[in-house]
């Protein structure tokens, strides 16, 4: 890209001037904590983007620092001058994606995963069915015993070992698209099911529906909803993310609802920023803002309704690993903790720097495995003093990452990781 004016507009150059290079972001940045490189800190990345936008650096010189950023946005929360780091990061990723030369095999793989798999509910459902068969047929045991996955690319064998139990096709087919509230209906909501949530964590989605129902909410599940677009946006494929956003806005605005509910911090953050995608689009700007105003994390709505009766004691020592995107983008802090502490029997122990990223960050732990594991190891060192037997999360990626941490620390059988929704359901049964 040779036109500097075009580059500066796309990369978010105007936002870089808000950074005064004070360094308040350094202690909050997980990659700076583990790598100790200025280029891998928020202020360092901002300076690199600024220099690239001014033609002083080749775009390839900023690729590694930008790719190694988790996008956790913790820096944005602590910044005293309100730097919109997220916009700078997404702009840089879009420019880098536009100028990336992929091999034929990588282009095919990326196109299949981003365009043909995640946005396609029927294919994601088929993937779920295949994963279920892989587990129940005994084939998983055979594969693990012969250790063939040790040679799998991208350390996929390590992630296969922590894969959750998949719900059977028959159970998934039984889900109703409208679930009536128990007792008097107080509100009507629509559930954003999510790609990964509905494939790998279907039971958590069901528990979300049941908790809402118990709280007095009628729940609808729009069948034509699609992927939130987070992975696409984070990879710089903004045009695809916009297309997915339009589809979801159209689907959900047809429902006469009070809220659009999500239970995955990363997906919810993307839904909450649909208005950023269309801020210069007169046709979609207003519609996106209305959608954003309706989007809520499950913890917000359950706390607002205050309709759960939690009678079953959960006698665990519990600590909480919040989703970065739930805390830093959706700005949801207190509700999960208040719901957690309302569960009878638990002993809550806060982790040091509990708001720090665990290193999952979408597919960061797959494409940047070593860096991700260094961040996870640091997180597990902070977890150990709590002596917790249960780690509660609010995002599927965080859940799997913390399961990986338990495995790496050889704590399997002594510590479990659960979604907040599942623990609340456990206490309400």
From TrEMBL:
Q: Which UniProt keywords apply?
A: 4Fe-4S, Electron transport, Iron, Iron-sulfur, Metal-binding, Repeat, Transport
Q: Tell me the InterPro entries matching this sequence.
A: 4Fe4S_Fe-S-bd (IPR017896), 4Fe4S_Fe_S_CS (IPR017900), Cys_rich_dom (IPR004017), Glc_ox_4Fe-4S (IPR012257), Helical_ferredxn (IPR009051)
Molecular function (GO) terms for this protein are: 4 iron, 4 sulfur cluster binding; glycolate dehydrogenase activity; metal ion binding
Supply the SUPFAM superfamilies for this chain: alpha-helical ferredoxin
Top class in the EC scheme: oxidoreductase
- Please explain the role this protein plays, according to its UniProt record: Component of a complex that catalyzes the oxidation of glycolate to glyoxylate.
What is this protein's name? Glycolate oxidase iron-sulfur subunit
């Amino acid at each position: 890209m040779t036109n500097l004016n075009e580059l500066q507009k796309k990369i978010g150059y105007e936002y870089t001037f808000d950074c005064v290079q004070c360094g308040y972001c350094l202690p909050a940045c997980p990659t700076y904590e583990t790598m100790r490189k200025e280029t891998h800190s928020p202020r360092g990345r901002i300076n690199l983007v600024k220099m690239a936008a001014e033609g002083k650096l080749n775009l390839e010189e900023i690729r590694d620092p930008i790719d190694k950023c988790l996008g956790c946005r913790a820096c944005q929360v602590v910044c005293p001058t309100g730097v919109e780091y997220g916009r700078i990061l997404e702009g840089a990723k879009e420019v880098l994606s536009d100028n990336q030369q992929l091999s034929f095999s990588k282009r095919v793989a990326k196109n299949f995963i981003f365009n043909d798999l995640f946005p396609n509910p029927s294919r994601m459902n088929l993937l779920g069915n295949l994963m279920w068969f892989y587990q129940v047929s005994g084939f998983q045991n055979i594969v693990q015993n012969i250790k063939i996955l040790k040679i799998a690319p991208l350390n996929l064998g390590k992630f296969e070992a922590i894969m959750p139990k998949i719900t059977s096709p028959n159970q998934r087919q039984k889900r109703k698209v409208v679930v009536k509230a128990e007792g008097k209906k107080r509100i009507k909501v629509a559930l954003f099911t999510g790609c990964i949530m509905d494939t790998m964590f279907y039971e958590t989605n069901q528990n979300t529906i049941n908790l809402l129902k118990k709280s007095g909410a009628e729940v609808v599940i729009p069948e034509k909803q699609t992927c939130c677009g987070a992975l696409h946006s984070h990879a710089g494929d903004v045009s695809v993310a916009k297309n997915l956003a339009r589809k979801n806005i159209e689907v959900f605005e047809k429902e006469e609802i009070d809220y659009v509910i999500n239970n995955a911090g990363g997906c919810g953050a993307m839904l909450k920023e649909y208005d950023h995608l269309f801020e210069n689009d007169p046709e979609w700007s207003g519609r996106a803002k209305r959608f954003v105003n309706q989007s809520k994390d499950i913890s917000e709505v359950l706390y607002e309704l205050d309709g759960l009766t939690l009678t079953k004691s959960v006698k665990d020592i519990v600590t909480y690993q919040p989703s970065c995107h739930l805390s830093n983008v959706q700005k949801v802090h207190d509700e999960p903790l208040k719901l957690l502490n309302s569960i009878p029997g638990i002993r809550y122990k806060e982790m040091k720097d509990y708001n720090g990223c665990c290193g999952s960050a979408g597919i960061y732990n797959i494409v940047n495995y070593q860096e991700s594991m260094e961040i996870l190891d640091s997180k597990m060192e902070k977890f150990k003093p709590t002596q917790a037997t249960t780690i509660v999360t609010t995002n599927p990626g965080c859940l799997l990452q913390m399961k990986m941490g338990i495995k790496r620390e050889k704590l399997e059988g002594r510590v479990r990781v659960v979604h907040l929704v599942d623990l609340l359901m456990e206490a309400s049964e």
